[in-house]
Specification:
The strands form eight sheets. Strands 10-11-9-12-15-8-16 form a seven-stranded parallel β-sheet, with helices on both faces. A six-stranded parallel β-sheet has the order 17-27-26-18-25-24, with helices on both faces. It is globular, with a radius of gyration of 29 Å. It has five domains: 98 residues, 3-Layer(aba) Sandwich (GIY-YIG endonuclease), CATH 3.40.1440.60; 67 residues; 178 residues, 3-Layer(aba) Sandwich (Rossmann fold), CATH 3.40.50; 177 residues, P-loop containing nucleotide triphosphate hydrolases (Rossmann fold); 88 residues, 2-Layer Sandwich (Alpha-Beta Plaits), CATH 3.30.70.600. It starts with 11 loop residues before the first strand and ends in a 6-residue tail after the last strand. By secondary structure, it is an alpha/beta fold. Bound molecules: adenosine-5'-diphosphate and zinc ion (ZN). The site of zinc ion (ZN) has 8 residues, from loops.
Length: 737
Amino acid sequence: MPESKPPGTEIFVSVLLPLAVEGAYSYLLNAETGNLARGNFVQVPLGTREYVGVVWDASAPRPDVVSAKLRAIKTRLDVPPLPLAQLDFLDAVARYNLAQPGMILRMMLSVEEALYPAPPRKGVQLGSVTADNLPEAFRLTAARSRVLAAAEGGLGWNKAALASEAGVSVGVIDGLVSAGLLEDVDLPVGTNVPAPDPAHHKVDLTAAQAEAAAKLRTAIGAGYSATLIDGVTGSGKTEVYFEAIATILEAGQQALVLLPEIALTAQFLNRFEKRFGVKPTEWHSDLTPATRRDIWRNVHRGEVRVVVGARSALFLPFAELGLIIVDEEHDPAYKQVDRVSYHARDMAVLRGFLGKFPIVLASATPSIETRVNVDRGKYASVHLPSRFGGQPFPDIRLIDLRENPPERGQWIAPPLVEAMTKVLAAGRQSLLFLNRRGYAPLTLCRKCGHRFVCPDCSSWLVAHRFQKKLQCHHCGLTIPEPRLCPSCDHEDTLVACGPGVERIMEEVTQRFPDARTIILSSDLVGSAADMREKFEGIANGAFDIIVGTQLIAKGHHFPNLNLVGVIDADLGLGHGDLRASERTFQLLHQVVGRAGRESEPGIGYLQTHMTEHPVMQALAAGDGDGFYAQEISARERTAMPPFGRLAGLLLTGRERYQVEDQARRLAATAPRQDGVRVLGPAEAPIGMVRGRHRFRLLVKARLDFDLQTYLRHWFSVCGPMRGGVRLSVDVDPQSFL
Ligand code: ADP
Ligand code: ZN
């Protein structure tokens, strides 16, 4: 029997575990662990397992129910605590997004191995045998001598690194070890991450850039602020925020740069290196577990000074974070809709607010939210009026597909073909943009009308001809390219309807057989390295015509690109959701902005059936300000975000009737309150995904309404969902599908 202390003397510790549970669990302090502090990593028993968690409250009040089963903390891990600012952030993210705090902790502990001592790394160093006492018959070849010279200095070397330094194979190293000239050694733990040097290569800023940089610099060290850098693509926004990074490095703090796509990081890394002498540390999902573990540790220990990453980088355990840059702040990729929904831009602002440091948002086409925050004086702004080098923004021309349709079975309209022909003859690049992967969005039988649809989702199967398959873009289901119609058994009756990028590429190769072409779409590029190589090839002029999805639309700098043709400018306007116009404007502006960044001015062609649409008109007239003004007043009129608040509630389940039932029950239990309305339930526009039926409710509230408190109260009144139905909450929803 363990000795039990008299009541009243035990210390209760609440520990947050990375699990989908409501709050922290109570434990007893174990005498051997010593005193604990908030943020300490501990190992605790739960059920039959042990978990790593974080001390939430080191001297929690006596739990309401102290059962005999209250267990003790097992051990404290020998690592620095999770920084308190990061813990406060965890709490705030959970509250704002109505997520379970344990799930946010899970994102923060994405690499649990980082909490344990690193296994020693094996390496080699100079051995006891030297050139003077060589074993017999051992010849000191040139290669071997190079290795010994490189290993000079007494430090241990990783074998592969030494081999590459000396320009030999690892076999040569092994030979030297056998002969005793090198010996095995444990390398010291903890990689030294080279520090970026703020003075490495200062850039001469233009007057406008210098003014913008000065404003950012004064914001540093002055507590929380959010500043928008707004300027056309190529105006030097990156150069300007590099100055803010330089300042924060001088102040001895860490900086985080968020980018919406890892595809963007390649050029970024090189530019950063040019400015600061070393590459920053990248963080995204395409890293090996070992790399992730090292980075997590090094960020935690403050050895990494600058991280560039995808939205999940927000949850790294920064010890001394002092600045976050959100580049392309308007980008939809910042929104995560998963078990935990959150918007990385907004959470970055929250992190800055809690950590009392500045946030910088950069975009050529800011989100309406950010624009309005600037108008309201909540965010500061700096403006870069023109491109560096003085190139004008490309001229945008509309091609009215009603007047100038492509030939039958083709997708590129005659004026665009003509323009491409000229650009090709002039030795410059064209880019055709279509935001749809694959060959065709629909395959049907012309004999019986059979359509290929996904059995588990409300969606068509998209033809991917290059990979000879049909695929569902919702669940990934893939079937081989069919030859027969499964419904009427006829052969050669299947037709592809509509275009995807592969089909555009097919047309390009027919029309321009001699052009060097490349297609870029997320399903056709392999690793991040592969993608980087392709982007570099384009930048270096290895291709004449590029066909791509939105993968190509953002951020890249292609000096020789002169023409951008948008195959279907209307594509994003179809759903008519809240942000359809805004998104379309941003995306098309962005993709056209790839052209004419150096030398000759570029041209953009938009193929559209809606030349009179405000988005098309604004783009053609180069009237961004007019577009924003109009869009903002429309939102204001309808009290839509950012003039009102929304939360999306999605219910899913295997049985349609049960989902509908629960959705109705949920709606019926909604408390009536001033300033809030509950709309729905209604079947979601995409009624089924992965075999789960979907119903939606939309909660619309006044701007000053405490939506989170209302929702929490409502859900507790309603109680848990029944019949296997899952409810997910999306505060500030971006998608309504
Ligand atoms: P943005 O981020 O606004 O798209 P960038 O910072 O990428 O603009 O700048 C576009 C290009 O112009 C880059 O190649 C950049 O190196 C160059 N550039 C911008 N400002 C300067 C400057 N002051 N001196 C030298 N090159 C500059
Ligand atoms: Zn599917």
